[in-house]
């Protein structure tokens, strides 16, 4: 089938299968379909759209057909994306399974593990969370202490994770555990999968300064995990973790193209002779938007270079660093644009303080997924090749 | 004049620092927030503050005040900034007191010094400070006036017994001429006070007036310069509170850097963090000088706009840097509601915005410098 | 369009980088400066550049050009930025070529491609770029025109054989209507070219005209948009040269950090310096994308102002940071004339100023973005 | 004598003794009187003013009378300064002897050394330079290698200094040398004085990127120095060096109050409706001047606190850091104000490129006298008490 034929086919399929209400923009990721055992669909259309896309493998277009993926080539996947964008189709499914575990399993998992888990990710049956960070570990991720003891026919997991995104809403966890307590810290780590309904697993949401609670503390108390649920080699989990961190970094750094500040400022503050009246704010916004536009082109350049076969490598750290710092700066400017209204915390008029809360939420951007300081360390070491202490 | 504190002020500073550290640590604000306290401040603390002389700190001794001047008020505000003390101090003891003094109104000063009846001032009508842009019009009715319209971002607006409202008695929005100040009392006909819960968990209100009876305070039409002077003076004290916030963030952050371990070492040994903390220290040191200079100038009684704009601009810049650096250097724990550091950033921004943000101050600084 | 270089352009880049590194390292500029060379560039290098196709890089093959477009010109400029190559490339091959093309003048393109007779463009009349503010007036005289007045900051103004001068044929300063372009030839009556030695040791001149005969190029009165387009296009290439400067500063600085020892260790191990170098790397990476996008847009032939302003603003910011950090991190040795790094900062600022500095670009970016 | 009487006396003395031409502002330190054996006085008035002030000890008002100082109390010295300022009197003498060596000798020198050197500093007979930095040492000043060997009745000095200010114009040098080669690096250093006309001393000016040459390389080739010219204890020179560095830091950080940028901008660019027309530049200038004004008040506060008895201590590092960084920023803004004229390098119109050259000169501000990085290290360690590695 030629690419043109494929495009025609996709267009027809979308026309028939994507419900009209799924062709409208989402206000935030909260409106997205996250799937999983306990997911409450916002509408029948949302459920239908997931089922139909999941069946075609269009939730994960480039993953192999044999594991429930779409089996599309890069070019075909690009066409699918273009056609979905053309009709403003929402993604049928978003999840850490798609972004993180899937790619890791495809690269490091056994055939059996792929068969077991990937189709359920593709169909949105199982919602995954990521168990990396631990209390006190912070940027020094590899100092984790959650241990999995080898009990012959199973692992016995004890310990605690923190900053587990949506742990309270997830079905399974992919988790870094220490299997060789005596090995050097990077070498005793394994990558383990288990069901959050296992006996001994409990979660507790963390309230943030923004008032939101997207993260949990997660506790493991004598959790029994079957031997076969360790991914890759025992003691080599750090390799998988690093692979996924690079993935995550790229995702977090890629903030997309939000509504330009200048547009909001024009709406909110008005113009005189075509220019924002507040000359100082205009100057600040211009400085921000010049950098934001250059960042957008940099994401595009990195994407284009990756398509042309270049490896992104440590450049993902640069994208993560710049993208998150810019996003923080953007929200500081948004406060200035909204004036005192920005500081409302309750009340319908301010959507329960969305401006203030979103602003505070951005402060975590440069902490989660590797702090800005860690990214600068990585650039220094891996790109500039400056010497270690 | 020497840019230092004399012995008397040094004693005041120590007593204010000690008082607020003991009587109203940050946990108090958390408690008020979590209880959804309707009054929004602790009445017993306010009573204690009155006994300490803080409530009437700007007022002359004849009026029952402590007469410590703006340098004194700044020291109290700085101590409150360090502890994030919730209190009507700013609205009542600073803004209302400065406005009544600038209007030459002696009668109300006694009540002000006692603090039993709370005063506040209502200026803003939209999301930004714009005194000359005041639109609310006072209508002559019988022997007095009535007010109709909306005032926003009024500190302690829902608990105040008396609200000093800026309204137009002639001219149109954009003109400095034609403004007057009126007093409206709590419970007055047509007055609706709508408390607005804001990021800083402090008292703010929207006040809606509907043919509400109001009494003229001071002279008709010429209040612009008095209100401008009052907000300038308020800004010097706000700058001191922001300075307290910035300093406390630096202290808490360096303490954390000395204690927190990562990669097997104390993170305070990382040179990149050391340099950022040291830079922040210098930033705050500059602000401290600008704030003290502005407070001293306020006490000298002459023009204070240039100094107030300078101090407030510096304080906003320092507090923004300090709160952002504090959260970043605390890492994940700084993002949790359980930890106190987040309360500081939530207070710093609305406080900075009151009576004009950085750009407003910089613009004024430039204009008063002649460019 | 993909934000990458195709194979052909990749080859051009390698050849340009190699050519300038070999043929005109920084020591050449030092030599020209120390010898107080009157021509201010190496004629043999210019000849070699013509043979490489660099001189006519923007011109079509029919006119004898290499037709590599603005992306190609940008690659050459970037390589020249790295080596600080002194050459009439910018004035002749970029600005004059862009202006003549924008004016639709085909006749002169052949001469331009050969590079035997140098062209330049004269716009500024004061210390700042202000096209609409042009005051110099052309007077009709017999069948032609004469020019009187002063042009400043003209690149290669004292060596050019032909100067394309922007002058007013109607309207008054401040209006965009009424501008025309004239050619004045070297040695023309009343033309005095006063070379100005500037910080970058490159060719700049003040040109004084006194009833100097001039030939109209293009149509009367409507040259504003053509000149604006030419300076926009020139700015995309200037941005590329600034990018080369910034990159070279980063490279030389990281090399120095790896080699220099202090306190018994390599200074490149200091985390504060590592973070600053890494931040600079990111800044330059953003600029690289903005510059490539602007050059590609220039080649597409549509409106380029927004992209040019973006690229130039970014490049100025990056070059300023890179040159300042380079000197600071080199320490004392970076301050000596003997060491090359100082040549970069001296070139970066005047180049940034030509056709509008950061503020000019930011203002234009905002205006073209609709605010 | 009461302070009021003192003031009257000083006023009379100045009226009689300060020549009219010495009551005009100096364009730069180049016009100042530096003294020394080979100093060429710009005018008879300049010479006369030095002689008269030197005789009274008013070149160094608070130094003891016994060594040729003015013997004034702090309050009296303040009055002298006020009265001199009132009539715009120039300082009769500026020198490294006054700023640096004098204070060090008064604190660490022997009675004989004070008697020998201090009067000559006070009268401007001898011009001193400072021999601290060495090639390759940079911020790591204590790694200096110039050695002074104990030859029984004299020291034999060999080595090289760099960044020696005005070494080619100076008569004597105060110099850090290594006297105990085997001691830990901070403990083997001594503080030595010697005549620059001694056999074996030579200097070579360093041309800077600014085109100026205020510094020299200074070479010592078997220089013989009498035993008595070592100040303080042998091997304890580092203590004196640190004391002087703090002095120097304060001096360099204290940039005084230069002409406001805004005034220059108004003159150069013009205003519309009282405001600078270029709104972006106006905003930048305001940001700079707000910081510059706060810095000025900070210098004043530090001075007032010192007067009140507080020790400046490591705060001098903060003043040095902020003052030099602000001065660099100021000169970047000056370039913007002057536009293309700023870049002229030769020619009378631009005073031979003074704007560009002064701008480049400022780049050294944050390097000389301890780099900005060193100041930040000091603040971190001594004020914030952050831990060492």
Would you kindly provide a written description of the structure presented here, covering whatever features stand out?
- The complex is a heterotetramer, with two copies of chain A (389 residues) and two copies of chain B (371 residues).
- In chain A, 43% of the residues lie in helices and 15% in strands.
- Chain A starts with a helix and ends in a 6-residue tail after the last helix.
- Chain A has eleven helices and ten strands.
- The model of chain A is unreliable at 252-256 (pLDDT under 50).
- In chain A, strands 1-4-5-8 form a four-stranded mixed β-sheet.
- Chain A is of the alpha+beta class and 389 residues long.
- The longest helix of chain A has 29 residues, at 279-307.
- Chain A is globular.
- Chain A folds into three domains: 3-94, Acyl-CoA dehydrogenase/oxidase, N-terminal domain (Butyryl-Coa Dehydrogenase, subunit A, domain 1, Orthogonal Bundle); 128-236, Butyryl-CoA Dehydrogenase, subunit A, domain 2 (Beta Barrel); 254-383, Up-down Bundle (Butyryl-CoA Dehydrogenase, subunit A, domain 3), CATH 1.20.140.10.
- With 371 residues, chain B is of the alpha+beta class.
- Chain B has three domains: 7-116, Butyryl-Coa Dehydrogenase, subunit A, domain 1; 120-222, Beta Barrel (Butyryl-CoA Dehydrogenase, subunit A, domain 2); 225-368, Butyryl-CoA Dehydrogenase, subunit A, domain 3 (Up-down Bundle), CATH 1.20.140.10.
- In chain B, 50% of the residues lie in helices and 15% in strands.
- In chain B, the strands form two sheets. In chain B, strands 1, 2, 3, 4, 5, 6 and 7 form a seven-stranded mixed β-sheet that branches. Chain B has a two-stranded antiparallel ribbon with strand order 8-9.
- Chains in contact: A-B, A-C, A-D, B-C, B-D, C-D.
